[in-house]
Write a structure and sequence with these properties.
Layout (H helix, E strand, L loop, with lengths): L1 H31 L7 H7 L4 H5 L6 H29 L4 H25 L5 H13 L1
Helix pairs in contact: 4-5
Length: 138
């Protein structure tokens, strides 16, 4: 008999938990967009950023992106080039020293990128405030 009582209590607990979950889900939906309907497209529209929140995202300067792309290309090409040049002209077919040369080359490129990023000048606070004011007027 206690087993039957236990299963009834477990069912009641499960039903209560399911009811709590559905209530909390309904509350979350109403917080997202009070005018939303229960259509499947309403949740997709509610998750899109508005124009106000898009303006708050930080803008990445173009010179930073150019530097990242340039170092990425060099990081792709330089170690491979160093490997084959070392393999054919320096170490005469010995692959281990050629592979070490490629690894050292990759580390040099990475260190150069870190140094370039470290020494990059940050815009002054006046420039940053001018850019943020310009974004707000646009």
């Amino acid at each position: 008999m206690p087993r039957a009582k236990k299963s009834r209590n477990a069912k009641n607990v499960e039903e209560t938990e399911l009811a709590d979950i559905s209530v909390s889900t309904a509350r979350r939906r109403s917080r997202k967009d009070p005018t939303s309907s229960d259509s499947p497209h309403a949740s997709a529209n509610a998750e899109r950023p508005t124009s106000g929140s898009a303006a708050q995202t930080p803008q990445i300067p173009s010179n930073v992106l150019q530097k990242l792309v340039a170092f990425s290309v060099v990081l792709l090409i330089a170690p491979i080039l160093a490997y084959f040049l070392a393999l054919h002209y320096v170490f005469a077919g010995s692959t281990t020293p050629a592979a070490i040369t490629a690894a050292v080359t990759a580390n040099i490129v990475l260190a150069a990128y870190v140094y370039a990023a470290w020494t990059e000048e940050e815009p002054s606070s006046a420039d940053a405030s001018d850019r943020s004011a310009k974004r707000k007027t646009d």
